[in-house]
Structures are given as structure tokens and as C-alpha cells.
Amino acid sequence: MTLSIRPDLTSADQVLSSLATQKQPKVTEAEMMQAVRTLLIGLGEDPDREGLIDTPKRLVKALQFLTKGYHESLDELLNGAVFTEDANEMVLVRDIDIFSSCEHHILPIIGRAHVAYIPNGKVIGLSKIARICEMYARRLQVQERLTTQIADALQRLLKPQGVAVVVEATHMCMVMRGVQKPGSWTVSSAMRGVFAEDGRTREEFMNLIRHNAKFH
Fold first, then answer.
1. Which residues contact 107 (CB under 8 A, 6 or more apart)?
2. Could you tell me the pTM of the whole model?
């Protein structure tokens, strides 16, 4: 088996994901819908009643959309939107809405990401930063991994002076079940390059996002 990999665009987790996908047997939508029917029966429901008869199909389609990031790549997403530019000041895209799914319970993770980088001869189209966040969010995730994946992707793509990512999110697995604590927010960060090494640069980034952050 041979995998075609671009080192600058593919991280170790993507390689493992590709290998795992190729080893797994193909599951049809019909089989997935049958699995949903089994779950409904196990919950004590009748999957043939009017309100549920199309639920297996709808749930499969919804899950496919919510995890579409597995079938996307940085190469396709960027579509050449990396440009040579003589810029060396911080670029920040703040308040990027994040919708993901907890890999432990497949319940929603809802929040926002703040992403900054300091160019080193290359810049990226601003909308692509939001698309990178969405690609990694549209997978089964833990917040810590999501934050790191966004930072590492920009670091590989641009080789900038530094990258900073802060994700703040509320997890429905903590709100709807378990400890049932609505209003709780989880904050995670990933700092690369000058953001990790220079406290003043890091503080500038944090000040720019802090006044509007949920965790302030």
C-alpha cells in the first residue's frame, strides 16, 4: 500500500487517519441506518412510528456532515491561497465560530477560536484560516487536539515567525449529562515560535482577544 503524502501539509495524525481509513471495511449508508434503528429499539422506541421512520436516514446524513473534515485535506482547502508578502506584523482572526463533536459521547462542542500568526515572507487568505478551523472541528474531537491541529497546520503551511491559537468552548457532555454544569467554558491554547518564546508578543495577542473572550 502506498500513500501519497505532502510533508508540508500532512501531520502525523492525518497519516494515521488515512491508514486507518484504508484498513477499515466499507460501511454502506444502509448499514449505518440499520445501526441507528437498532439504537432506537434499544432506547425503547419504535423506529417505524411516524416521527422516527426517517430518523435513521436523517441522523446518518447529519453525522456525515458533522464529520466531513475527515474527507478534506489542507491541500484542497487552500487551493493555492498562500502568497509571498513582505509583512512581519501580527495577523489575527478573532471569534471564529467552532462547532465540533466530542469523541467520547458524540455530543456538541460549541465555541470560538482566535488565531494569530506573524508572517515570515508568506501570508494566507484570511478565509482559509476559518476554513482550517472548520476542517479540524468537523471531526470527532477533544478540544486540546483541535487547538494543536490548527496551530500546527499554520506552522507547517507558512513557516511563520510564530502562531498562536486560543479555543474557548462549552461541551454538551458536561452540560447535558454527567456533572450537568451549564455556563462552564473550557479554554485551551497552543503557542508556536515567537508566541511561545516572547512573553510580550504573547501578551499582545492575549490582550487583543481578552476583552471579548468568554473566559475574561
1. 101, 171, 172, 173, 176, 177
2. 0.85
**Distance in angstroms (rounded) separating the CA atoms of residues 18 and 70:** 9
Whether residue 174 sits in one domain with residue 87: yes
Supply the range of the domain harboring residue 44.
25-66
CATH classification at residue 92:
3.30.1130.10
Do 133 and 46 sit in the same domain of this protein? no
How many C-beta atoms lie closer than 10 Å to residue 214's C-beta? 13
Tens of pLDDT, residue by residue over 128-149, are 999 999 999 999 999 999 999 9
CATH of the domain at 40: 1.10.286.10
Beta pairing partners, 140: 101
**Does residue 134 form part of some domain?**
yes
Identify the helix (H) or strand (E) that includes residue 122.
strand 122-124
| Count of domains for the chain | 2
- Which stretches of the chain are assigned E, i.e. beta strand? 82-84, 91-102, 108-118, 122-124, 140-141, 162-171, 186-193
> Could you tell me whether strands 91-102 and 140-141 are parallel, antiparallel, or unpaired per DSSP bridges?
parallel
Q: What is the mean pLDDT of the chain?
A: 89
| CA–CA distances in Å: residue 183 to residues 9, 108, 176 | 37, 14, 11
Beta carbons of 124 and 107 less than 8 angstroms apart: no
Residues recognised as catalytic: 102-105, 143, 171, 173
